[in-house]
TrEMBL record:
It comes from the Bacteria. This is Extracellular solute-binding protein. Pfam families: SBP_bac_1. InterPro entries: Bact_solute-bd_prot1, SBP. SUPFAM superfamilies: Periplasmic binding protein-like II. PANTHER family: ABC TRANSPORTER SUBSTRATE-BINDING PROTEIN YESO-RELATED, ARABINOSE-BINDING PROTEIN-RELATED.
């Protein structure tokens, strides 16, 4: 961070940047809630947000509409898919600091030990559930799957509606039926042996 600030101040010597440590992410969010409740006069000028927070703060008018500073911030270089979560009613309130691709990490040795075939290009969610369940039942000492729900949900919904949880206008695009279908997948994983339960929480997950 300090290197980025040094480069910025070198290019814009008339601007001084003061970095503030806020600790864990929740510490920042709690601070912002307090700042904005008091009028936002002590909130940082630039800060990071995730999840639905850009929608929340942007929709309530607490963030800068970047369209008003297009002379200084070129938002045309960003794909619409990268700015959906920070767009509210056609206005953009934030820019991504990076991007990721969601995938499945497979332990080939574990699959082999459990006698489960490795994934193929035409793998389906049903195949995924079956493989995870078989591994969980194979007495290898591990659960079949470890899901990052906050990441995988958006990817799953995007397979159903092309955009994910939000559409390109920043509105919620996921339907209750789509969310329910993911919860049903989770229930299948828990009902089988794919996910650890409270009683089996001591098991090691992959």
């Amino acid at each position: 961070m300090s290197k980025a600030i040094d480069l910025f101040e070198k290019k814009y010597p008339n601007i001084t940047v003061k970095a503030e440590s806020v600790g864990a992410p929740n510490d920042l969010f709690n601070r912002l809630t307090t700042d904005f409740a008091a009028g936002g006069t002590t909130a940082p000028d630039v800060f990071a947000l995730g999840g639905a927070l850009p929608q929340q703060y942007g929709g309530s008018g607490q963030l800068l509409d970047l369209g008003t500073v297009s002379k200084y911030v070129d938002i045309q270089d960003y794909a619409a898919t990268a700015t959906v979560s920070a767009t509210v009613k056609g206005k953009l309130y934030g820019l991504p600091t990076g991007g990721n691709a969601i995938g499945v990490l497979v332990n080939e040795d574990l699959f082999k030990k459990a006698g489960v075939d490795l994934p193929k290009a035409n793998w389906t969610w049903d195949d995924f559930i079956k493989a995870a369940d078989e591994i969980g039942k194979s007495h290898t000492g591990v659960a079949g799957v470890d899901l990052r729900i906050q990441d995988i949900l958006g990817t799953y919904i995007a397979q159903l509606n092309k955009t994910g949880v939000y559409d390109f206008k920043g509105k919620v695009a996921a339907t209750p039926k789509q969310i329910q279908s993911w919860l049903e997948i989770e229930q299948k994983l828990v009902k089988g042996a794919a996910c650890p339960t409270r009683r089996s929480s001591s098991r090691t997950t992959t």
